[in-house]
Predict the structure of 16208_t:CDS:1.
Amino acid sequence: MASKEELKKRKTYLQIAGFACSNCHKTSREDGTSSLLRCTRCRMSYYCSKSCQKADFLFHKQFCAAIEELSNLEEVWYSCNGKESEWNKRKIYHMQLLVAALDRDLTSYESNAWLNQPKCHRALGTTPIEAQIFMSNLSNYGSMRNNEGTSETLWAPEEWDEGLIYPPLPKDWSSYWKWRKAPPQFNQLDAVRRVITNSLSLPLTILSALERFYSRSQLRSFDGLVIHLIGAGKYEVSALMSFEEIMHILPNIRTLQLILIGIELSSKTMGVSLQCCPRCTKADRKRIYSLHPISYHEYSASDDFITPQIVVGFNIGLYDEFWKPSVEFLIEKELPCIFTSYSKDEANQDAKMLKTLGAKIIVSANENKWRSTMPLVEPQETDKFYYNNYYRTLLKGRRE
């Protein structure tokens, strides 16, 4: 049986994902801080305070040093040529090097932390030198810095073509880049496109749902659009700037209001204006967001509730019992909804739950052509990846 000290030091999923302190297990919200501090040496452990970082150092320092040593070995960061299976093999090779550096097997936490590290998801298949070029290229397409202190890459050109009448959207990502007249050199930056789809997947998934719920004339008549993002967290906050693409594809919209509701959000924030591109600014168009760090069921019963044109949940695990009262409210109010999932299995579980509650399902667990193309590694299996917003389910009202 594990000792109390060993149990205390075991890392939770939230700690591995960077949402909780690696020492005391508290999230930034629980600790009352705006964000967690990241270890500047390995960039894989997070702390709510300097004191927690110091307290964890005895446990963390050996693994931290091994990671730093590996990071300095340029020859082991060979290119994977964009192949996910080769990328995963390289990760396993790196784990073997870490074992050699530590002179012991990796703990469960160390294995999961290495396999889940976000820094390699951005520049899949690149060497450190290529990664520097990659990040330099990203700056040409714009980026934002969120309140967690991390940057998210965007692509949303300031110009739009009034002749491109929406709906429908193009048939796939390749057609979309042409439709939006991406610069020629963009086609040569596969790693860049992968990262950018991770942000643009959100607004385009929403646009694809809007064209199922509303006619072209209805969509072109909207001068304001209210979107509820439920179960929102880091993913949605870091991609906030990319939602301007909705305004570029629907140029009649004067005000886009994004209302984020989720227990992972740090604090309540109301009616904050986001900067728009020069053309939108000149046209006096506005983009506003609000944060509500509560459940959607609580939000729906509050005085802050505003009726939306669409309700969206990205990869929230709708099948969890936690969502039952929220889904019942959405069904009763007949609000148009779209929910995405990481996998077919999760999407089927979502659809099963919705059928049990009597929801009228319009699209059931279908593959989403606007999913992210940036792979996220499955930590428990070899050569298996998943993607943000891989599958989608649409519903509105109650089944007759």
In short: Residues 1-9, 118-154 have pLDDT under 50 and may be disordered. Residues 4-117 form one domain. The longest helix spans residues 190-213. The chain has 17 helices and 14 strands.
